[in-house]
Amino acid sequence: MTEAFIYDAVRTPRGRGKASGALHGMTPMQLAVTALKAVRDRNALDTSAVDDVVLGCVEPVGEQGADIARVAVLEAGYAETTAGVQINRFCASGLEACNMAAAQIMSGQSDLAIGGGVESMSRVPMGSSGGAWAMDPQVAFHTYFVPQGVSADLVATKYGMSRADVDAYAVESQRRAARAWAEGRFKRSVVPVSDINGLSVLDRDEYLRPETTMQSLAALEPSFVKTGESFGFDAVAIQRYPEVERINHVHHAGNSSGIVDGAAAVLIGSRETGDRLGLKPRARIRSFASVGSEPTIMLTGPSFAAEKALKRAGMDARDIDLYELNEAFAAVVLRFMQALDIAHDKINVNGGAIAMGHPLGATGAMILGTLLDELERTGKATGLATLCVGAGMGTATIIERV
Amino acid sequence: MIDYDAGADGIAVIAWNMTERPMNVLNDASIARFAAAVEAAIADAAVKGVIVTSKKRDFLAGADLTELGRSADAATLMASTGRFHALMRAIEKSGKPFCAAINGTALGGGYEIALACHRRISADDPRIRIGLPEVSLGLLPGGGGTQRLPRLIGIRAALPLLLEGRKLDPAKALAAGLVDAVVPADRLLAAAREWLLTDGPQNAVQPWDRKGFKIPDGGVFSPKGHETFVAGNALLHAKSWGNYPAPRNIASCVYEGLITDLDTGLKIESRYFVNCALSAEARNMIRSLFFSIGDANKLAARPKGVPEQSYRRIGVLGAGMMGAGIAYASADAGLEVVLLDTSPAQAEKGKAQARAILDRRVQQQRLGAAARDAVLARIHATARFEDLVGADLVVEAVFEDRAVKAEATRRAEAVLGEGAIFASNTSTLPITGLAEASARPENFIGLHFFSPVERMPLVEIIRGRRTSDACLARAMDYVRCIGKTPITVNDSRGFYTSRVFGTYVGEGLTLLGEGVLPALIENAGRMAGMPVGPLALADEVSIELMYKVRKQTRADLGKEYRGNAAADAVIGLMVERLGRIGKKAGKGFYDYPADGRKQLWPGLAQHFKPLAEQPEVGAVKRRLLYVQSIETARCLEEKVVIDPRDADVGAILGWGFPPFLGGTVSQMHSIGLDRFVAECDRLAQRYGDRFAPPRLLRDMAATGRAFYPA
């Protein structure tokens, strides 16, 4: 089997996902193009060598519709021979795109590919693509559909996390993200988004609230009480988890991932092609995996995905130096740490989506880059990136520096 | 059956008139005749418009459930549903205007025919009911109702009507858009005729058959539609605990059908209709809710040859909660009621309770102030036994104490006429024993009302050993007179309902004693379809009361006591050691914080150590449900209950046994007696003799007999 190497990883800064956000005036196409151009320009890449561009996007409708990956390839000025495909594994789309790109290399069917993702949540809001899962009565009944927020609160209830636990996690995430920005730890990956005249629109994540404290979070009302209690979703969740008397609603905007806009791209290829193009490999992709898990609690997939990827790599959780788990909700990370017995100082060491936001289709590729940057900064070797996924899934990727 | 009359003015009248039955219904024969009339009207060039109406009091009550119950296979049902749809489409696309003149109640298929007409006019009679109530019997409107109603009034307006089976009077039906006009009854046909001759010709095409038709209020994928389905699905799932296929299938008909055109939508509806019609849930609900409760209300089991008794004046002894409720229910039905207690003040307290119930109804605008005052005026609060003179029947609802009851019996009988009935509302004391205080034990009977009387529709009639057939028949007449549903049982400890209901609570306590998580027990009870979890129920009933009853029963029966020892131990611990005696005391299995919802007492984990390996919820549900059926089977074997229909009706109306299972007997019937006996044998082996199937069941299973026809 051919080995797949990461040659570069870039991302845009994350703009607040609302009309007042800096990136709201930029199209998702422009975000994707920014990332693709950066990969090309930083590496003086002959784009005719790129076989395929795989981009994750969770709401692929409207201006994100019609295979945004292929059109972004054209718009970025890549060789017209480079193909493009848009994929959707919900919140893990960006990582899944990297895994699929890597799989093309490993199988020997491509030599060089880009994995990444894009989401302008301010312009194409969550839920825009509809779907049968929540709406089709038969499907909603059979799958015990509940919205993610209720699932997150169910995770907290079932695994014993209090409001104080999840808030404390969130405060720490903000602190770590602020420190990472202050120390320039994201420098290598973040490329500014510029307008048509070359003027910078955004050059750093704008969602952070470093002033967050336990007190300031305590003032926030839990977000999913009404959804859970008035619309019946708590009762549906309890029918799936009848050992639970009542769901303890602990999540709110301050300890859940932020809604933001952004894009990312990761250049992946074989050693031979990298050598031919004069590229220097930064990490080897050891293994990756996606799994399905129980869909009502929905967000417990990462530990299973991680275990599956570890097994495939012949590794143990202790063999991993650093973890990145998308901070969809604080309880998701706390449960992952509990399940795999991972110390807090080995996971999300530079903060995560609670502080910086979660542009759905792009996040997976973003945290893969963050993981690689941090391994390099600290001189560590192995890292695992993973995300929880809607409808009960998890995706994980293990990398090792070379 | 169907009268056809083509008038000189070009208006044909098709009138439903099934003289051989009490009501017009849709069945193979009547649909064929109706179809012939429709075809004749369409074919006759002289006919310019058509009125569909009825010559009976009702317009058309719906489908003939006897016939539906016989249909066994999907293909046949699919074909007959398809024929009905074709007939409705023929009406809609005939090019001639059809107008439904709704002279009386139009429900289910009856209203669906009206929906296929180009206009619906209702008479202004407030007794008329219009709607699609199929869901209440586990069915769905299979004659196009799920497709036409939302296309007529919008998805969000139609869904609650379909899902809750609401029946509206003409004024509400007009407001909701179910009918286009309401006119005085004597102008109904004229109004229909007028419309057909003036506006009819331009309106002979249904809105959904016109180009550019849009669903009012937005379609399935509109923001409103999205919200309606996403939240609606969860609410439906939460409320039905996933036990009822019909509401889910109705939602699917609307969701799937309204994405497409009407004809495709009708096909989709047919599939879901057939799915419902063949479901065990629909069969159970039709059998018990429609036929068995219907038979009970008609007093089908009333002893023959006893002249029907009409009631004018009754007495109620004891003005506590039950007595006051019985007085209210009787006065509300038009009877004069003498409400008697030990002092005038006590008696007035009971009357005040009746007043409170009536005031609530006035507040909810379901009763006028004058009507309330008339009902109240019929209740005579008193402390004098002499006031009972002339009463046709006396219901005793005094303290559950043999001596107190005996005294009340003697004093009442002293002033009552020779033929008057004396009824005891005891829920625990055997009737035959209480009748010993009576000078006329053949006229002594048990009438077990349920609390709160004004809301609970069931009366369990208990026949003592010496109660006469005539007394039973006349007691049934009284129950019917006050609008309640009677079941008849023979005398025995706990009679039928309390005895079987007690096993549900008992099994919950046993599970707790075994170390099953209390939340799991409570959720399993509700997921099984019971209204309340067993532990919450124990708190409501009062753990202390259960403790006392069990103690008394043990003392009465000595070695014969067959109680559930594990449950007794849990009750003993709660009352004797922990002092957690129930809801009234603010602490039982639950805590009852003054400012919030009740919550399971965290201390339970300490006293009932949770099993490391918890059972599947399905296994817990089965235990909670099967234990009730097994006890019912014992009641049938011991002839406490004679008629399985009474057992089913009593279970559903008496203690809220889940209707989708049809009752405690229907549950066994749907599972199959063979399988049920085998499962209970396994349960008995593992959990004790209370699950052991009685001889009766074994014999029936072995010889292939069943409680009901297939």
Characteristic terms for this protein:
heterodimer, A: 402 residues, alpha+beta, ten-stranded mixed beta sheet, two-stranded antiparallel ribbon, 15 helices, 12 strands, 37% helix, B: 710 residues, alpha/beta, 2-enoyl-CoA Hydratase, Chain A, domain 1, Rossmann fold, N-(1-d-carboxylethyl)-l-norvaline Dehydrogenase, domain 2, 3 domains, eight-stranded mixed beta sheet, six-stranded mixed beta sheet, globular
Give your account of this protein's structure.
The complex is a heterodimer of chains A (402) and B (710). In chain A, 37% of the residues lie in helices and 18% in strands. With 402 residues, chain A is of the alpha+beta class. In chain A, α1 crosses α2 (68-75), α3 packs across α15 (363-378) and α6 packs across α13. The two termini of chain A are 18 Å apart. Chain B has 710 residues and is of the alpha/beta class. Chain B has three domains: 2-278, 2-enoyl-CoA Hydratase, Chain A, domain 1 (Alpha-Beta Complex); 313-492, 3-Layer(aba) Sandwich (Rossmann fold); 498-639 and 672-703, N-(1-d-carboxylethyl)-l-norvaline Dehydrogenase, domain 2 (Orthogonal Bundle), CATH 1.10.1040.50. In chain B, 50% of the residues lie in helices and 11% in strands. In chain B, α1 (28-43) links the parallel β2 and β3 (49-54). The radius of gyration of chain B is 28 Å and the shape is globular. The model of chain B has no long low-confidence stretch (mean pLDDT 96). The chains are: A alpha+beta (402), B alpha/beta (710).
